[in-house]
Amino acid sequence: MTAFPSASVAAGCRTSQFNELTPLQASKAAHHPCYSVSGHHRYARMHLAVAPACNLQCNYCNRKYDCSNESRPRVVSTLLTPEQVVAQARQVAAAIPQLSVIGIAGPGDPLANMTRTFNTLTQLREQLPDVKLCLSTNGLLLPDSVDRLLDVGVDHVTVTLNTLEPAVAAQIYAWLWLDGERYTGEEAGRILLARQEEGIRRLTERGILVKINSMLIPEINEASMLAVSEKAREWGAFLHNIMPLIARPEHGTVFGLQGQPDAECMARVRARCGQAMPQMSHCQKYSADAIGMLGEDRSQQFPLSALPATPQPYTPLMHQRAQLHASIATHGESNEPDACLVAVASSQGDVIDQHFGHAQRFQIYSLSTAGVVRVNERFTPQYCHDSADCPPEENGDRMACLLELLAGVQAVFCARIGYGPWQQLEQRGIQPCVEGAWQNVTEVLTNWWQDRQAQQTVQSKAQGAA
Q1: Helix or strand or coil: residue 134?
Q2: Which of 7, 187, 266, 428 has the most CB atoms around its CB within 10 Å?
Q3: At what angle do helices 225-235 and 263-273 cross, to 10 degrees?
Q4: What is the C-alpha to C-alpha distance for residues 415 and 279, in angstroms, rounded to an integer?
């Protein structure tokens, strides 16, 4: 059967000294174009420009041209409302079915724009239930936001961490703004670093994948990079992306005349830091509204003026996208007649441990000669909200929506399921499966698929004999 990639494989680094991710985390990393060397050739991303304000002034950043840590300087994003973003995201998902992740990366800091950011994330989660949501932040407000990020289904966060030393931070940042107070110098550095550590630790403890971005600034923080890698790994981050400072006089920043690290310097620092944690080097800098595969930006193809007055229904599109993503993940094996998709109710991706009515997301797997391969996940309305029975007549709308989202799968695996939902699944041609409750997902799905193959072989022979 197909093995899940380790953290190092997902990052494109095979150093065996690093701890492996859980199977679910490794699969998520492999399907994220910004986190995986192989994934960025196969999946697309969309950046959303909905966050104009920032609570931290970096000396390499001029927000007139987007944050240069995440984007190309002098490329101005069009600031969108949450409603415009969702409409554009649906359009992009239809035009680029390889789209796997949507992220908020600027042009300021998403968490300094709490209302706009979480309104956007909530609407995206409701209207595009199969798309990954991610966010890039300086980390200042992370400790205050972890629960909300989990609630809305964000499971990938990038944190910009440029140093661990308050004195160096004082050279990199002009000021920060927190709880109505403005801080500068080493005091600002101490506040920022403490909150970055707390936020990263809390994210990783809750299972969220954290990537660290660092801007390499010659003569300022080059000597700090190894310590950043070591501490980030200790805090639970799994990937480090060291980027060269982009500094030119026309950018109007403090570091405009600082000079950029050359290729030799970048290679030296990445090699040194690679001893501490996997390094990422395949990602380029793109604007806060970039769209498409890594290495391209198709944002100009999706102007607001081209948005349809009435968007097409998303559910049929989601099912088509699932077939394509399955084909990508299995190298075409999922296109064979005997292959199928199934849904699994699992809290961590390793054991079938959730009640059908309590699950808020279902993992979608492809079963084929390629093995048991996770395709993506679908966020669904929770059918039941307590331990009591949930009569279908009281939850008709939620059940109808849930059945529609699960259309296209051959079976649903869960720990328990009520009689009413069981019947409705069967009426839709979906097999409810509870025999594998509290057992390993891969083993249960493998046995089920092998039994299904054997039954189909017997039926074919019987039909041939007749």
Answers
A1: strand
A2: 7
A3: 40
A4: 39
Nearest to 384 by CA among 356, 345, 407, 405: 356
Sign of CA dihedral 283, 131, 235, 57: positive
Q: Select from 340, 386, 376, 330 the least CA-distant residue to 132.
A: 376
Identify whether the C-beta of residue 244 lies closer than 8 Å to the C-beta of residue 222: no
- Whether the CB-CB separation of 319 and 282 falls below 8 Å is answered with no
Half-sphere exposure (Cβ direction) of 6: Cα atoms closer than 13 Å: 12
**pTM of the predicted model as reported, rounded to 2 decimal places:** 0.86
Both tokens assigned to 118? 């979480």
Burial label for 92, CB within 10 Å (0-12, 13-18, 19+), is buried
DSSP single-letter state for residue 375: E
Q: Nearest-CA neighbor of 75 among 106, 34, 110?
A: 106
In the sheet that holds 154-160, the strands lie side by side as: 279-280, 239-244, 209-216, 154-160, 132-137, 99-107, 44-51, 291-293
What one-letter code names the amino acid at 442?
A: T
Decide which of 390 and 460 is more confident: 460
CA distance 274 to 79: 37
For residue 140, pLDDT over 90 is answered with: yes
Cite the beta strand spans of 1-97 per DSSP E: 44-51, 56-58
Question: Does the pLDDT value for residue 106 go beyond 60?
Answer: yes
- State the pLDDT at residue 453: 92
Q: How many angstroms from the chain centroid is the CA of residue 413?
A: 24
Say if CB 86 and CB 206 are below 8 A apart. Answer: no
Polymer length of the chain: 466
- Give the C-alpha separation, 464 to 456, whole Å: 12
